[in-house]
Amino acid sequence: MNTIDFKKVEIRKGFVRDLQKLNAEVSVYNVYKRFEETGRFRALKCEKRDESTHIFWDSDVAKWLESAAYILAKKKDAKLKKLADEAIADICKNQLPNGYFNSYFQVYEPENIFQKRMEHELYCAGHLIEAAVALHEAGVDEKLYAAMQKYADYIYDRFYVKKDAAFITCGHPEIELALVKLYNATGKKKYLDLADHFIEERGRHNEPSYDFAYNDYDQSHKPVREQRTAVGHAVRALYLYIAMADVARIKGDGQLAETCGALFEDISERQMYITGGTGSSYHGEKFTYAYDLPNVFAYSETCAAIAFALFCDRLAKLKNRAVYHEIFERVFYNNILAGESKDGKGFFYVNPLEFHEDIYDYNETVKTKEFCPLPTRVEVFECSCCPPNLTRFIESIGSYIYSEENGEIYVNQYISSQTEIGGVKIVLDSSMPYGGRASVKVVGDCRLRLRVPAWNGGVAMRVNGAYVQPQIAESYIAVDCKGETKISLDFHIRPRFVYANENVWYDNGRKAVEYGPMVLCAESCDNGKNLRAVRIRSLAGAKKTVGEYFMLEVNAERLRSGEALYSYEPPVSEKISLKLIPYFSWANRGKGDMQIWFL
């Protein structure tokens, strides 16, 4: 399956174009501002300072550069280009003659270059390589592209030829997927060989990890081909799985592909939140065990959500299945979008599925604080991997809409856009995520396959104005298009209840509400406190309004007891109109309670 690159896709008026406009005009500049203020860009000058550079600041800058590349690929922005050029110039100027670049190690610990496995050297290198490839393919810059090939050559020499580094695989996978991108861009097989080497050597050696962790933390507990359960740090795991899927596709490795499929199944069927979030525990930012999906203290990192979406994309390239696009859609419209504030300036690292301000407020009063998610988004974190990850993902979202295989064109995401594939022009207009209608205009001859969303409430279709009974196979509708073809689709979007598996004991006896691809939640600013005492018996009569916030009003009841702490009398219920908003919109109106799962 070949996906159509975002540079060949124009995003049209609608939800995602508004998102990208905010990203290019506000988010990318605000992230730069906060990174500059905190010293991330100054660190590239490789000058010793009183406060040392953080070990993975290079990766933050690299993801910001990748974001800039995607923006500049679509439009001219002299200010953004200048900022990117300045950062690139510092990297190239301070790169060592042998190709090595790391703003921390070459300044503060040059004697320990490639000696500390868990200190993110190759992780930073991987993100710099990704940025360099993006800048090259966007036609924005060639200097970093040349510099990072030199760096990759040095890594190849040290880890693949001489094998004289103090470790064999990096404690944080990322270099693997980056090397595949470099191979795809350059055609140099040595980069694919090195990626394959790092993948295959993982879990075959007793390599050091953090003192607090076992080898499953960084997926080194067993060879990758023997892994069937997602374990350890969620971002580490998913970055590794992305590279595994890439290599399996390029090399036609069926066994490795089967491993990737088993890992996806484990995550999506036993370790995924309803929002598409992964990694349920603060302790090690980890996958834990099947059905362990706490809500109040969910971790569900934004970077893990992005990585899971990218893994879905790679699996679809390996062997297309509608479920990969379904999960991608779930992750995007819920966990990923929740990571950014409505004004485009603030970000969540952690994405809980339930919030009680009393828990947070009390935790702030004690010296021995426990882990507790933040009540509102912030502009920068000490570990600020998520903000630039969001800016680069949002800007490249066009890459996940269309694909092509065996002469057939697939529409996988209903995002208003247009493209040309093999001489066939496609114009897609969609009301999603707030509505279930879409229209597709095709100019040219092709077989078009249109994905039917899993949340559909029945499909109505017209082709050139005439109603047609859609024939659905493997969650796709096939339409033979000749000349100019106009297709209208209505997936009958309506609210519906979702119930968790009984083994998810946090959600036993409760239900969530979805509207199309969106998981909905209630906030105390609309509904008052004690949302856990709210019961929804039916969604009949639900009313939708779309203004500054999408809102769905449903008939519900709130259970109330007397003043006694315990009572022999059952609680009474009072009727209320419960106001639900998309989960991604929560925490934009100040601190307050939030609830997804209801009685």
Characterize the largest beta sheet: strand count, sense, and whether it forms a barrel. 9 strands, antiparallel
Using DSSP, what is the number of strands?
A: 24
What would the average pLDDT be, to the nearest integer? 97
Please mark out the parts with pLDDT under 50 across 5 or more consecutive residues, or reply none.
none
Q: What class do helices, strands and sheet pairing give?
A: alpha+beta
Beta-strand fraction estimate:
15-25%
Helix % is 25-40%
Number of helices: 15
Radius of gyration: 24 Å
Span between termini = 43 Å
Shape: globular
Would you kindly provide a written description of the structure presented here, covering whatever features stand out?
With 599 residues, this protein is α+β, with helices and mostly antiparallel strands. Among the domains are: 38-201, no CATH class; 403-432 and 436-490, Golgi alpha-mannosidase II (Immunoglobulin-like); 497-595, no CATH class. Helices cover 35% and strands 18% of the residues. Strands 5, 17, 18, 19, 20, 21, 22, 23 and 24 form a nine-stranded antiparallel β-sheet that branches. Strand 21 (543-546) and strand 22 form a beta hairpin.
